[in-house]
3-dehydroquinate synthase (Paenibacillus woosongensis), 734 residues
Amino acid sequence: MRTLTVDLGDRSYPIYIGEGLLSKSGEYFLQHQLTTKSPVLIVSDENIAPKYLQTVVDSLQASGYQTVSSVVKAGEKSKSLDVFEEVMTAAIEGGLDRKSTVVALGGGVVGDLAGFVAASFMRGVHFVQMPTTILAHDSSVGGKVAVNHRLAKNMIGAFHQPAMVLYDVDTLQSLPERDVRSGLSEMIKHGLIWDEQFAYWCRDNADRLLALDREALTYGLTEGCSVKAKVVSSDETEQGLRAILNLGHTIGHALEAIGGYGEFLHGEAISIGMAAAAQLAVNRGRDRSIYEETTALLAKFGLPTTIPGHLNDEEIISAMLHDKKFKENQIVFILPVRIGEVEIVSDMTLDEVRQVIKQLKGEGQHV
Amino acid sequence: MRTLTVDLGDRSYPIYIGEGLLSKSGEYFLQHQLTTKSPVLIVSDENIAPKYLQTVVDSLQASGYQTVSSVVKAGEKSKSLDVFEEVMTAAIEGGLDRKSTVVALGGGVVGDLAGFVAASFMRGVHFVQMPTTILAHDSSVGGKVAVNHRLAKNMIGAFHQPAMVLYDVDTLQSLPERDVRSGLSEMIKHGLIWDEQFAYWCRDNADRLLALDREALTYGLTEGCSVKAKVVSSDETEQGLRAILNLGHTIGHALEAIGGYGEFLHGEAISIGMAAAAQLAVNRGRDRSIYEETTALLAKFGLPTTIPGHLNDEEIISAMLHDKKFKENQIVFILPVRIGEVEIVSDMTLDEVRQVIKQLKGEGQHV
Ligand SMILES: NC(=O)c1ccc[n+]([C@@H]2O[C@H](COP(=O)([O-])OP(=O)(O)OC[C@H]3O[C@@H](n4cnc5c(N)ncnc54)[C@H](O)[C@@H]3O)[C@@H](O)[C@H]2O)c1
Ligand SMILES: NC(=O)c1ccc[n+]([C@@H]2O[C@H](COP(=O)([O-])OP(=O)(O)OC[C@H]3O[C@@H](n4cnc5c(N)ncnc54)[C@H](O)[C@@H]3O)[C@@H](O)[C@H]2O)c1
Ligand SMILES: [Zn+2]
Ligand SMILES: [Zn+2]
């Protein structure tokens, strides 16, 4: 078992990564002084609950906790205010109070949804993340929680740090292949923004990672979480550095939104976004190898690096305008400098974005 | 003009109370370094907007701000997730970004709703309170923001302090009489929990306050805000002392909920709740004069002190169970010790509450 720490003063918390952790949930709860006097709400989704909910319930109950649960539909569409209200109803009917804990047992969707419930139920209660996807190594760390608005992703949310992250890697064995790839996209991102060696390690271990080799996974998730934890520790509420975690996300979020949160998985959308960022860097004078290395790495994981032709360029632009507000026709973008290093660029123009969309559709001229 | 300060370290902020302040909104915005580069969203309701919105818009625009507005239906029903989503849509369509400011121009309903929008739009933007009711001298100070859940009041919210409170007492002249009384109920509460002299001042100046005498109002609001500011400064997130602000609110919130948020105004419901708290204190051995003085004071303002017979006792109890969770059949209550002083009692039983409900219906035996 590995333990990392997210260092945030009196809101610091540990990330436990290892096997068989769900069946020890109760012990971890007690160790973290979460009260047994108030009910615990476990939020999960229809795919995950049948597999793992009972294990968590049994362990918590054995440690003296009373539990209630709320199982939502699987998929990004559950990150909505309607489902948020459903979960709130479960919290109220389950008799939760100000001292209660809300648990997210699931991927990034459940984590973001349950986290916003924890942030706003009675103005904030304790929160525990139990990630069950690879992608959630990213989403479960850092305290960003949110639901989507019809017009743009993650518009409605809070910063609400968990009391701990309990990452049982056993659960990953049941992940559908497409979600495996999608999750690895964020792992690669952590290499690309921060750690050249780790990026190349990902490339060289693509097959093991895709085959869900436990040792490779544990290593990759620990490294990924560790990059995330470092960045978040130095800039909790995204005043500066934390923005680098958004590599690929400006265009990625726009693609998710215009795909109706159904066409692309999050990791797929940001894979395209990372390819776009690399192309933008090249368009601005970086060596073409940055684009080639980035897309080759992503392609090794079967991740997409082009924009499907049927998507409308101006719809992508307009979704992006909602997401991260251009100011005076300029927008902040994260661009690679080389593998393992990025820069925050704040003068990207709409025309440059229009150009890269065309390039990623194979319509424009590659530089 | 009077200025008070809510003392919360780097989240401290001023409360400005005076005449003609709305027409100086823009100057106050500039003075508080709120950026002119990002659009400002003004949230108001259908009664208030026709009277005061244009003044604020004109002043902000004259100072270089771009404004958008969202006008919701008047009344407690607008403190819902549905209306919250509407306001979020206005924020997104209005092009707000992370540096934007959300303004609440209205009473407690608009303040709580707009405040929760400010707390959660893009995970939190600046917030300015421009209260237009007497009641809002309470709600605009302290950073508690929330919407209601069908099952219980204020269940979904956050702590989100404003950058300033701009309280233009001129607006109070157009308040409907019932809202004047309702608002004075919270003013009286501030006397009852903290300041004997102020409580008696309220009693002796009831006629001037009800007649909206500007001098009396300004004095009463300043004293009321000052009690609130002191309590909040010493306990921002209600770990202890802040609970005394809930005098009358346990039963009050239950009455509001079972009245479908339509039968009672907030101040009316807590007036009944304060009478109930005084009766509970007497039932527990305090001198009967505490009940008589409290109800006489409230009656001088035309505020209700009895529970209407048509309300079902067990429905009141069950709404209360949702609101402030009984633990092992006991609940925290704020009870008067004497006029100007309260205590936090944490062993109130359901049976004692049942008894007081009967007493306030005129059914039970008064002690
Ligand atoms: N908060 C953050 O900082 C942050 C960071 C990155 C991503 N995100 C968000 O995360 C979300 C994507 O997360 P995700 O990819 O985990 O999506 P997800 O939660 O929808 O999970 C993907 C799919 O896998 C299923 N699943 C989950 N665990 C499983 C398991 N162990 N076995 C079998 N099936 C399982 C789910 O039911 C779902 O169908 C997006 O909404 C994204 O915006 C948030
Ligand atoms: N956040 C807190 O700490 C806190 C504290 C106390 C109360 N509250 C909340 O405040 C709410 C009650 O506030 P309220 O009584 O101000 O209600 P409100 O906002 O509904 O205003 C009362 C009525 O007066 C109208 N109105 C407002 N200003 C006016 C004006 N200047 N001229 C004419 N009409 C005007 C409104 O349209 C409304 O019909 C409740 O939801 C309560 O829970 C919150
Ligand atoms: Zn992401
Ligand atoms: Zn109140």
In short: Chain A touches chain B through 37 residues (CB under 8 Å). The domain at 2-174 of chain A is CATH 3.40.50.1970 (Rossmann fold). Chain A has two domains: 2-174, 177-360. Chain A has 14 helices and eleven strands.
